[in-house]
Amino acid sequence: MKKLNFVVVGATGVIGRNHIAGVIENKGLAKLAGICDVNKEKCSLEAKKLKVKSYFSMEDVLREKEVGVVTLATPHPMHAEQAVAAFKAGKHVLCEKPMAVTVEQADRMIAASKKAKRKLGICFQLRLCPYVKKAKELIDKGKIGRIYRIYAEIGDIKTAVYYNSALWRGTWQGEGGGFLINNAPHLLDTLFYLVGMPKKVWGISRTQLQDTEVDDAVSAIFEYPDGGQGAIMANCNQLPAGRRWEIYGDKGSIFLKSDSIRFFKHNKMIHEVVKLKVAKHAGSGVVSSERKVNVLPGKSDHALVVKNFCKAVAGKEKMLCSGEEGIMSLEIINAITYSSYAGEEVTLPLDRKKYRDLFNKLKEMGPKAKHIPLQPSPIEK
Ligand SMILES: NC(=O)c1ccc[n+]([C@@H]2O[C@H](COP(=O)([O-])OP(=O)(O)OC[C@H]3O[C@@H](n4cnc5c(N)ncnc54)[C@H](O)[C@@H]3O)[C@@H](O)[C@H]2O)c1
Hints:
Elements: E1 4-9, H1 16-25, E2 30-36, H2 40-50, E3 53-55, H3 58-62, E4 69-72, H4 79-88, E5 92-96, H5 103-116, E6 120-123, H6 130-140, E7 147-157, H7 160-164, H8 172-175, H9 179-183, H10 185-195, E8 200-206, E9 217-223, E10 229-235, E11 237-249, E12 252-257, E13 260-266, H11 270-273, E14 288-291, H12 302-313, H13 323-342, E15 346-347, H14 352-365
Parallel strand pairs: 1-2, 1-4, 2-3, 4-5, 5-6, 7-10
Antiparallel strand pairs: 7-11, 8-9, 8-15, 9-10, 11-12, 12-13, 13-14
Helix pairs in contact: 1-12, 4-5, 5-13, 6-10, 10-13
This protein binds nicotinamide-adenine-dinucleotide (NAD).
């Protein structure tokens, strides 16, 4: 397999460093050809240490013929424009999550990748987590049967230091939203990767405590075409922090965390249990018992994402998360935001123009777009 030459853009930021390490770790498949960041001082210093070329603008990277892959570790409001430019220059793109800020931008990225016949991969490394892989295997093998209900939650705590750590954070203009769009994508991607996309979405997204104009407390409910129901909660005013997923099916149920999985199997299928000629479930002999599951050891880091990306470009593996799959969590994020501000239920796929108009309004309003609990939406109808 021919080695791919990578340039990591946004290289000196929090996640850029993981991508640099990920490329270096995959010596047989990838080469770090350079790093790019608008922070010239940090970028030069880092490039010197790594003994690679430094770039201070994407345009300079895209002019380099021998660069095959551009990794986007820049803030997500830049992803769409940078990805489209990279595809036009004939590069493959490995893009950090969320893939963009609006579904319309994500559509453009997917179309540009297809037009250029170049690969687009979205960095959802949690899909590689051994417990997530096990849950996927159980669901795909039909072990839990038809899914009736799902629940997922991410709770975390953010302080003012986090929101002040970079100018782009905590604003509609700079971050495209708040906790939901920047910190909940892994939760949502994992959920919809496991169980598929719903048809209808109702959301509330509010600023409960943080001193920002964007959401810090979000709840949403979903309905599936087959009648299944779901709910998620995402907020950064919570301790202890953590992520969890619950999936309830006809034959069994799964309780998933990033570091554990529990699998319950019912001795009778739920659709049969409800027809039993007994007044109550208790005493019917129906039980759901926990089964031991064998989880293979493994990691879910950026090095493995880079490895998969190289193999997917060579046609030797399926892309861990393509653009078409990466858009799923963004579709939900935009739909929740739309539902909350417009006070409407949303049918997916989300109306691209309606979301663009709302988002432009939120950016324009800035601090006035803050939606305080129990107050009417700041957007006039
Ligand atoms: N996969 C994960 O687990 C994970 C974790 C954290 C962040 N992220 C995502 O990674 C992205 C970056 O987040 P971060 O926390 O690393 O942000 P950050 O602010 O720490 O880093 C962003 C970097 O991009 C640089 N930059 C800005 N504009 C640029 C431009 N035009 N050209 C080149 N460089 C530019 C900045 O100087 C900075 O060094 C976000 O989309 C975020 O959601 C993903």
